[in-house]
Amino acid sequence: MVKKKAKPKRKSSKIKVKRPIRGVKVKKVKARKVAAKRKRSVLTKAQELAMEKIGEVTHYFPHVKAAAVLILKDSLRIGDEIYIKGHTTDFKEKVASMQLDRVPIQEGKKGREIGLLVKSRVRIGDSVYKV
Predict the structure, then answer these.
(1) Is 59 part of any domain?
(2) Rounded to whole angstroms, what are the CA distances from 78 to 15, 27, 82, 86, 131?
(3) Which domain holds residue 74?
(4) Rounded Cα–Cα distance for residues 34 and 44 (Å)
(5) What is the mean pLDDT of residues 101-110?
(6) Is position 6 within any domain?
């Protein structure tokens, strides 16, 4: 009878996870990382208060990156600079394209719901200010 030689054991490529020792508290770093990622406002509080709200986002179309905006005051023209502010939204941009019932327009007037191309995602209820 011939004895077979034992094969040498290979070290596994898996990383072993160390379990915390009982009684030792582990610090949570996640909260700090989230706080560091928060963006600061594009405008200061004084600038935001000085601006007049001209509209509100009523819908967002992600495939075409367009927002439906209900104009509440004054009017909005192509070339005007707007500031969109919401719970997670905070950016400025120039109005490049505007539509009403899929027809390009130059000016959106009070009471109309227009479509605007936006550079970033917006949410229903975000405020639109004219800068």
Answers:
(1) yes
(2) 57, 52, 10, 22, 13
(3) 45-130
(4) 22
(5) 95
(6) no
